[in-house]
Amino acid sequence: MKYDVIIVGAGIAGLTAAIYATRAGKTVLVLEGKVPGGQIINTFHIENWPGDLGISGVDLIQRTQKQAIDLGAKIEMEEVEEIEKTENGFRVVTEDDEYAAKAVILAVGAEDKKLGIEREDELTGRGVSYCATCDGAFYKEKDVAVIGGGNTALYDALYLADIVKKVYLVHRRDKFRGDEALVEKLRKKENVKFVLGYVPGEILGEEKVSGLKLVPSGKVDGVVDDREIIVDGMFVAVGKKPMTEIFADLVDLDENGYIVAGEDCRTSCEGVFVAGDCRTKNVRQLVTAAGDAAVAVNAITEYLSK
After folding, report:
1. For residues 66-94, b (16+ Cβ closer than 10 Å) or e, as one string?
2. Are residues 244 and 107 in the same domain?
3. Of 8, 127, 140, 251, which sits with the fewest C-beta atoms within 10 Å of its C-beta?
């Protein structure tokens, strides 16, 4: 079957695009190779989604997915391996099947960046984690470290502060990149300690994490000595990496791997559009991902009408 639109990725951008495209009368297929929702399903408590204070990432995605399906979108759990432009549209190849589309929306999102320090991979699952809401319960009444300075790190620290004995929030700079409102909430937590101007240099422990050796980042004046903290867990939240490598021959990517597109969500390949965190832009939030989806579908409608 040939679809009007194939959407790669079932996060908030991909599912929102499916809703808008089906409402525009288009036949829609959403392909997702992992878990619907992407990174947002790891967020326990969302405070910045308009009209629904305190919804969880899982609940938000389940509602959005149901809405897309009820409107007529088809969702298949298949990993996309190749997209080829043809004379009549696009050929989309997955691990299990092959599909045809008149237009494509890339909404593949981004995955967690790693610190890149020795034994990080070896100790993942044994004290090193990238998901506070997934693993936080294992550290009840224990001391942990959260690494990062953006909203994800701040949310993780807030979440963990209600579970663990103590949270060290380690950031390489003297100011956080995340929302000031979150920083103020953390300042009021007696069991949260800011460790600014440091980065992890070494993970301590043999079979599992027992501590961290922190080294000066060079980003804060006066921080010159190494220090050690005793922790049972380390939660890494230092940013994302777009999952766009397989599309490098289809669309232009910037130096960081993000798909080059302006606010119209049009890529360098005619008929391919982009939405969400994998696009070049300054702000990556749930609402901007949903906004991208609406814009991309509007552009597709114009494109298909030609």
Report:
1. eebbeeebbbeebebeebeeeeebbebeb
2. yes
3. 140
